[in-house]
Amino acid sequence: MKKITALLIFLLSCSAALCAQDTSQGQSAPKKADLTQAVTPLRVQVVFTEFDGEKKIASLPYTFLVNADERRTRPNSQVRNGARIPVAIDKDKISYIDLGTSIDCSAMQQDDGRFKLTMNFERSSISETFAGWAKQDGPSAPAIHQFRAEINPVLKDGQTTEGIATTDPLTGHVYRVSVTLNVVK
User: Fold this and answer.
1) Which residues lie closer than 8 Å to 46 by C-beta, 6 or more apart?
2) Could you state, in order of their start, the residue ranges of all structural domains in the chain?
């Protein structure tokens, strides 16, 4: 019984000494406000526009929310829109390919009040100009038009920029991507 009492007294004195040491060094537990960073909600609009010469063929807008937040290491907004298309591999086999639009976006607020966006785009579609071009003895295989890009525009509230303008080498069509940023109030 004396040993148990002595052990309890020893443990209590050790824990009291540790508590006294922590407060004597002036260290306190981090406050919740210190652990979080201010987050600014943004509305981002991305518009993919396709031109054949001067004629606008298509305009595809995508609007989504993203938070300006430096703590993230991966995109905090992702948009996936499209379809899985069956493609015949041979007479008895079918595989599926993904077609459509993918957008990944993250944002960081800059010291001057602007926002740096990190954006990855991918658009794929069946090329009508070359549909079925790979037809041999078996089933025809569609030609897939694919566009990928990464941009990092720095925009202020209400600003729009044309981030990409590129020409399809097969059709001559011009593809433009514009980005608009608005702070959500």
Assistant:
1) 61, 62, 63, 103, 119, 121, 177, 178, 179
2) 31-183
What sections of 112-160 are H helices per DSSP?
Answer: none
C-alpha 89/C-alpha 18 separation (Å) is 70
* 38 token code pair: 């201010």
Q: Which two tokens stand for residue 148?
A: 């990928």
What is this structure's pTM? 0.70
The DSSP letter of residue 58 is: E
Length of the chain: 185
3-state SS assignment for residue 20 = helix
Each residue's pLDDT tens digit, 103-137: 999 999 999 999 999 999 999 988 766 544 555 55
Q: What is the dihedral of CA 61, 65, 69, 74, to 10 degrees?
A: -70
CA distance 21 to 14: 10
What is the band of 73 on the pLDDT scale with cuts at 50, 70, 90? low
For residue 138, with 0-12 CB atoms within 10 Å meaning exposed, 13-18 middle and 19 or more buried, which class applies?
Answer: exposed
Q: Which two tokens stand for residue 46?
A: 């991305």
